[in-house]
Amino acid sequence: MGLILASGSPRRKELLECSAVPLLAVEPANIPEVRSPEEEPISYCERLAHEKASESTAKGHWVLAADTIVVDQNDIFEKPSDADHAFLMLKHLAGVGWHDVVSAWALRYVPLEGEIEQWVKGHNVSKVRFRTLTDPEIRAYIATGEPFDKAGAYGIQGKGAALVQEIQGSYSNIVGLPLAEVMVALREKGIIEP
Question: Active site includes 100?
Answer without folding.
Answer: no
